[in-house]
Amino acid sequence: MLLEFKMKNFKSFKEEMDFVMIPASIKDLEYSLIKKEINGKEIKALSSAAIYGPNSSGKTNVIGGMEVFRSIMLSGNILNKDGINTPNTAVNNLELIPNITSNKSETVDFYIKFTAQELMIEFKLSLELGEFLDPHYDRKVIEEELYINSNLIYQRNTELKVGKIETIKDYLIENFSPDTAEKIAKTNLDNKELFFNGMFKTLYSKKIYDTVYEWFRDKFRIIYHADKMHISPIISSNNKEKKYYIDTTLNDALKDFGLTSEKIAYPINNDKEQVEPLSIINLKEGTVVLPAEVFESFGTIRFLNIFPLILMAINNGATLAIDELDASIHPMAIMNIINIFHNDEINKKGAQLIFNTHNPIFLNNSLLRRDEIKFVDKEENGSIHYSLSDFKTNGEKGVRNTEDYMKNYFINKYGAIKNIDFSDIFNNMKGSNEL
């Protein structure tokens, strides 16, 4: 489960952004907390987080930063990448990462804290990527740190400092030799490669590498611009002789959500990696099959692409961060999804849901804790991030868990809202040609 994510000098975030999924010291909805024992200590985490803010404030950059960092951790280098299918172009072109006002002396920093297996893992990465839109800059890994259960395992900058390796003795490679490993590692540092994915994996602990890699790959799922996402089912070999694949669970959910046709099916075609959904319609004359996109509502199409991700997160105990989760989807459906993540009887593996939204209906003290309500606003120096729980309970700006969060948001008590008035633009129009 994700506990904390930080980044600095990333796109609109000039200063450090600290996204915390560790519960604040407040008395709010206790049932929405995830609890896990790590190294003899109980670790708690939030099961959901909703991010609010005006357009162009940086909400998408929070989730985009998570995806970029995830991509770097999986690839193990800071080179541009080809062929990764995501609308987040900064994943493939790292020159798009630095804040537009940054200069070459300012690093791009990432930090993450999470639990995987029975370990609490912290990883810090500091990169020198040059200025914004400089693809030819000689990029470098400036610093890299790994902590396991609060113990420093290694720190890499211009040199390598090995920490408390003895604390992970059960995870070390067979016939581990500390002197040999350190000697080889120190003479083979590559400033464009992560030490973790190369030398640490080979010379120290493949078990820990696999644990971290698999968490980023399977348990930290980022959906950037969910409105552009398309999900194709994995069709088992048992279905190859059939014409259509029908997911019963998905269709049951679609019927609750709102489905115009009888059911949704997918054509079984061995030649296509991506298959488009079909609407099955029963008429008096017989059964008709049409592309779902021309028959179903846009909201239904969005839901059938998002719901499998919700199922995956709940079944695997994954952290799911979705940009534009609720676009074209009724808020009652989103509320139910949030409550699924809060339900201990259903969310038994500790899945987490992070999403940004403009819909104020989720600003509800019976739905979300104050520390689950996040804000992003833009100031002169760039985007800033804070939680509703950061406000004290007393004073003019105080927030209690009995207050009307939505009302207070609209009277600008929390910030992260913008008054917009287009009337002057229309009043000042000189003629139809200008329109």
Short overview:
The chain has 2 domains: about 1-225 and about 325-435, 3-Layer(aba) Sandwich (Rossmann fold), CATH 3.40.50; about 230-300, no CATH class. It has 11 helices and 19 strands. Helix 4 packs across helix 5 (about 205-220).
Care to describe what's here?
With 435 residues, this protein is an alpha+beta fold. It folds into two domains: 1-225 and 323-435, Rossmann fold, CATH 3.40.50; 232-299, no CATH class. It contains eleven helices and 19 strands. Helix 3 (178-186) packs antiparallel against helix 4 (196-204). The radius of gyration is 24 Å and the shape is globular. The model has no long low-confidence stretch (mean pLDDT 91).
The tally of structural domains comes to 2
Q: What is the CATH top level name of the largest domain?
A: Alpha Beta
> In the CATH scheme, what's the topology name of the largest domain?
Rossmann fold
Mean pLDDT: 91
Number of helices: 11
- Quote the distance from N terminus to C terminus: 51 Å
Give the percentage of residues in beta strands. 25-35%
**Helicity range of the residues?**
25-40%
CATH architecture name of the largest domain: 3-Layer(aba) Sandwich
The secondary-structure class comes to alpha+beta
SSE order, as H and E?
Answer: EEEEEHHEEEEEHHHEEHEEEHHEHEEEHH
Global outline:
globular
Q: Got a strand count?
A: 19
Low-pLDDT stretches are none
Could you give the order of strands across the largest sheet?
2-1-6-7-8-9-10
Largest sheet: 7 strands, antiparallel
